Structure formats: C-alpha cells, structure tokens
Amino acid sequence: MVRSLSHWTKTLSFPNRHSKECNVNVHPIQAPPTPARNKTSSSSRSSSPPSSPSNVPITEISQIIYPDPDSEKVIMGSLVFCIHHKEGCKWSDELRKLKAHLNTCKFDAIPCPNQCNSQIPRVMMSDHLAFTCTLRRAVCEFCNVEFSGQGLEEHQGFCNQEPIYCESKCGTRVLRGRMSIHRAKDCLKRLKRCNHCQREFSADTLSLHASTCHKVLVQCPQKCDVSPLPRGEIDAHLRDECKALLVPCTFRDAGCRYKGPRNMLESHLESNTASHLSLMCQMSVKQNQQILSLKNAVAKLSTNYTGTLLWKITDWSSKLAEAKSKEGLELVSPPFYTSQYGYKLQASVFLNGNGPGEKSHLSVYIKVLPGEYDALLKWPFSHSITFTLFEQSSNGGGAQGGIAESFVPDPSWDNFQRPSTEPDSLGFGFPRFVSHEMLTRRPFIKDDTIFLRIKADASKVVAV
Ligand SMILES: [Zn+2]
Ligand SMILES: [Zn+2]
Ligand SMILES: [Zn+2]
Ligand SMILES: [Zn+2]
Ligand SMILES: [Zn+2]
Ligand SMILES: [Zn+2]
Ligand SMILES: [Zn+2]
To answer: TRAF-type zinc finger positions in the chain (predicted)?
Structure first.
C-alpha cells in the first residue's frame, strides 16, 4: 500500500534533538489532494492543504522531497515518531523504517477480515470481531442458533427460547414461544367464566368466588326438606319459608321463652293463650310504673325553683263565666318552690271572688304544700308573699304597671305551720285583691288573658 505524501507531512513528527541537528523541514513541500485511504483515517488525514505547487501525483517520498540521493539518505535516516504517537504508540526510529512499522503498529487501522467495510485499529480488532462487527458470527444464548452480528441483534427480543415474564403479571417466566399457550391454559391470571353465574374471574380467584357465588345451589342450613336453593335465596328462605328454622314466640318481649320450628308456632300460641295474656298484664303493670316515674322525672325537671311564679291565666271570659255558674270554683297554679331545696307553694284564684270578695272581686291565695325538703326547713313558714297583677300595654311596649299586695306570715297562723301530707285548708291571701270593675277599667285583661305574679321572699321585707 502506498501512502500519499500529505499523510506523511501532516502526521510526521520528529524528536526535538534530531530535528535541530539535521535542520530538516518537510512541511513546505505538500502533496496534491489524493483520495483518502479509507473512511476511518480520512477524518484525521484529509485536512491537508488541497493544492501542491507541482500538481504532480506523489507515489514515492524520495522522488519528490529530495531527489538528491545524499539528502535523501540524511532525511530518511532522521529519527521520527510513529504517526500514531498521539494515540499511544511509543515507536520511534528512522523515517525509512516507519512504513515497515506501520505494517505491524497496533494503532494503525486495517480492514476488518470479515469484510464488513470497517477500518479498525489492530488493538481494537478483537473487540470489534467479538462484539460490534456486523458480519461477526454469534450464537444466541437461548436457542444456540448462529447468526451474523446484525442477524443476532435483529433476533434479540424475538427468540422463542428466551424465558420471559408473563405479560398478565402472574409472576411466571415462560419461553417466549410458549407464551400464548401459557396465557390460554396455565396462567393464573387468565379469565375463566363461573359456570353458575357466568361472570368472569381470573383463574386464581375463581375457587374463592365459587364459595360465595350467589347462584351456586346449596342446602338449607336448617336442613329442612326443601331442595337445594341458589345461595342468594337462602336468606329469604330462612326468613319467610323454612319450616325447620327455630323462631321465638311472638310474646317473647312479654316474657315467653318458647322457641321452636316455625310450623309449630301456631299450636304453641293456641295452647298458651292464658299464660301469654298474663304475661302481657304483668308487662302492662311494669310499664305503668315506668310511665309514672318518668312523669315524676319530667315534673321535677319542669319545676320552678326560683321563688317567683308568673302565672298566665288564659281564656279569662269562659273561666269567669264558669266561676260565676259554679260557686267556690278555685283555679290552682302549678306548684313552685321558694328555692331548690325550699318550701313548696301553690297559688290559687277565685275569678268570681271568695268570702268578702264574692261576686265582686278577684280573690288570690297562697298555700304551703307538703314539699320534698320540709323535714329540713324552719317552721312556721315566714317568707313574705307579694301578689302582682300586671297591666298589659295596648301597643306591645311592655308592662305599664299593676296592682300589688303583700303580707308577712304571722308565726301563729295555722296556714304556715308544716303542712300535713293531705292539706285541705284554704291558703292565705286577699279575697278582695282587685275588683271586677277595676279589672275592666284598666288594661289587665288582654287577649282574654291575665298575668299574675306570686313572689316569695325570705328577707321578710315587703317589696313590690
Ligand atoms: Zn506505531
Ligand atoms: Zn467487521
Ligand atoms: Zn435465540
Ligand atoms: Zn401468566
Ligand atoms: Zn359465580
Ligand atoms: Zn329450610
Ligand atoms: Zn309463647
């Protein structure tokens, strides 16, 4: 192989020492452009200046550079580095030996023996032949078939003998060539249809489904004589039909402990009418007691413990008419306490008057009722009592005034000794509290309603 001078002039380098001694300069002489030796080398070597002064093709270095044999001898004897010095070749010798060295230099590129058209430095040839040469011979590790390098690359990803994971993510590795059979027949994730309900499940959950499938026929858990039913209908069967299911007596809540097959219940009810009735009576008594204690609890919760009762008396005219027709008709207020643990009081009114106020006045009274805490209280009762009848505003602007009467109990009065459990006495109060005439003259009655306040005060100071 003949190298062009451009390669040499471009790439030759000389050890410093020698070039100084010989004072040789090969650079001014340049070769005309010649075709690149090959693809690989062209990139580094084709950048030589394109023109030559002589424009003559150069084939032998000696012909052009130094026609003079003496000079040639000197030049050819000069010490140079290998043209692959920069790539790492350490060779250095006389210029005339360079050509021979390049035939063995491991950094020099030579054509691939597989004729893949690559130029490869000798030092990289074995790697090229083993791994990258497109015409190398290579064996597939799975099917052991021999391919060219390119053929193997195309074969990779398609080899039927390569184990790969199932695409349905069942976790199994299967040869690629058997994957379609695996997915159709063995794969745990393949879809299978339940023979009973016709829904589809993955093969590994089908058996679990079979134990809950609503369409699977099962025996009645009570083992009655009915033929197997779809699982989904068993609940309704037990609830509505099953003759063997044990059911409690209808009077269970009343206390009957009987439990038996559903078809026996009727005869139980027939033969136990009397005892069921007696159970119901007992339950009714118990419930009455409960109602009573609830009533007491409610009354306690709604009891007024403030010592002041504002008594709203409605339907004035009809109640007055009734009082006029029934002599001695007394209206009593809800009981109230003077304080949380104090005296229990009750007010009463005679709308048509009582005693000296009869038929002309509204009479008001207060009496002490037997209370919860009487045993702990001081007797006789000595709180001052004030009755106030309020005027009502005509325009909604609030109460305007009223009539008030007060008294402080005298310790000697019977009415205020500790009351017996069955009080019957009239209370103490004002038979002529307010006259009927006054009731109509001033705005005490509005919307057929009056407001009467009764206030008990421990201070004994009479205050309105
Ligand atoms: Zn070399
Ligand atoms: Zn190759
Ligand atoms: Zn293969
Ligand atoms: Zn699978
Ligand atoms: Zn099913
Ligand atoms: Zn049954
Ligand atoms: Zn019963």
So the answer is: 100-153, 155-206, 209-266
The pLDDT of residue 134: 84
Query: For residue 274, which ligand has an atom nearest its CA?
Result: 7
Quote the ligand 3 centre to 156 CA distance (angstroms): 7
- Residue 5: pLDDT above 70? no
d(CA 407, CA 429): 8
Provide the residue ranges of all domains of the chain, joining segments of one domain with +. 5-107, 303-457
How many whole angstroms separate alpha carbon 206 and alpha carbon 204?
A: 6
- Sole residue written with tokens 């379609």: 180
Alpha-carbon distance of 28 to 53, in angstroms, equals: 10
Distance between Cα 142 and ligand 2 center (Å): 24
**What pLDDT is attached to residue 13?**
58
pTM of the model: 0.42
The whole-angstrom separation of Cα 42 and Cα 45 is 5
Mean pLDDT of the residues in the chain: 83
Which two three-digit tokens encode residue 257?
């402990």
Domain 303-457 has CATH 2.60.210.10: yes
Between the CA of 131 and the centroid of ligand 2 the distance, in Å, is 9
Q: Which ligand gives the minimal distance to the CA of 93?
A: 1
Ligand nearest to the CA of 254: 7
Mean pLDDT of 195-208: 92
Confidence of residue 273 (pLDDT cuts 50, 70, 90): very high
Least confident of 266-280, 286-300, 398-412: 398-412
- Reference 268, options 256, 279, 280, 253; nearest CA is 256
The alpha carbon of residue 169 and the mean position of all alpha carbons in its chain are separated, in whole angstroms, by: 28
For residue 103, pLDDT over 60 is answered with: yes
Distance (angstroms) between ligand 7 centre and the Cα of 277 equals 10
